[in-house]
Amino acid sequence: MLRNINAVLFDLDGSLVDSMWIWKDIDREYLGRFNIPLPEDLQSSIEGMSFSETAVYFKEHFPIPDSIEQMKSDWTQMARDKYLHEVPLKNDRFITYCANHDIRLGIATSNERSLVEGVLQSLGVSRYFTCIVTGCEVKRGKPSPDVYLEAARQCGVAPESCLVFEDIIPGIQAGKAANMKVCAVHDLYSLHQTREKQELADFYIYDYEDVMKLLDQTSAGN
Questions:
Q1: DSSP letter at 143?
Q2: What is the pLDDT of residues 66-117, one digit of tens each?
Q3: What percent of the chain has pLDDT over 70?
Q4: Residue 125 forms beta bridges with which residues?
Q5: Which long-range contacts (CB under 8 A, 24 or more apart) does 173-178 make?
Q6: Which of 7, 58, 89, 106 lies 20 to 30 angstroms, CA to CA, from 15?
Q7: Comparing C-alpha atoms, which of 160, 156, 165 is closest to residue 107?
């Protein structure tokens, strides 16, 4: 998996940290402020969108008087405490392995920058990452490749030398469109998409310990 790989790029939510459960609750609470019920298909409709693209979607589909910037600010406030205190890292051994073997690390996410920076600092891993790129900082969000191509550029690595870890289909598609190897990550949020994720990605893991076991075996064999 890591052969000829010079950078590992992580999606954040559901891939690097266990946080997908937060957003359905936030969407329900936020829409409830305007007496709007949560549509059953909302999560799948906005999957992969940047914060800004999601806000535009809300403006176009719901009678919400607030501005796009106000919506984004409200969502950030609603999520901040959970990200700082309730969101766990999926694995830290793989992060330190990459750092110790001169493999650059980057984040390419649809989330909001301050939440990304906050959770990485809270989990004590921010020092390992060369870059953070959000969907709001590029022209198009996932499944377009923009966010991954920019992360590779900031890491100073060619796209074909990057390995992406993603938990949702639009993210997998984004990594593949960027000409990168992609490893799909098991997550309960996307459990119903497991087969499609396995078909689209180059690799599939249930846990980062799957990767570490292989790396440990390789080291032992040497």
A1: T
A2: 999 999 999 999 999 899 999 999 988 999 999 999 999 999 999 999 999 9
A3: 98
A4: none
A5: 173/142, 173/143, 173/200, 174/48, 174/108, 174/142, 174/143, 174/144, 174/145, 174/146, 174/147, 174/148, 175/9, 175/145, 175/148, 176/200, 176/201, 177/143, 177/144, 177/145, 178/145, 178/148, 178/149, 178/152
A6: 58
A7: 165
Q: How far apart are CA 176 and CA 128, in angstroms?
A: 24
Tell me what pLDDT residue 220 has.
Answer: 61
Distance separating alpha carbons of residues 184 and 34, to the nearest angstrom: 36
Q: Does residue 159 carry a pLDDT above 80?
A: yes
As a whole number of angstroms, the distance between CA 112 and CA 109 comes to 8
Query: Residue 9 has which token pair?
Result: 């790029």
Distance CA 34, CA 80 (A): 21
Contact 133, 147 (CB under 8 A): yes
Task: DSSP letter for 126, please.
Answer: G
The pair of three-digit structure tokens given for residue 73, joined into one six-digit string: 């600010």
* Mean model confidence pLDDT for the chain: 93
Strands 7-10 and 104-109: parallel
Peptide bond into 37 cis (omega under 30): no
Amino acid found at 169:
I
* pLDDT value of residue 56: 94
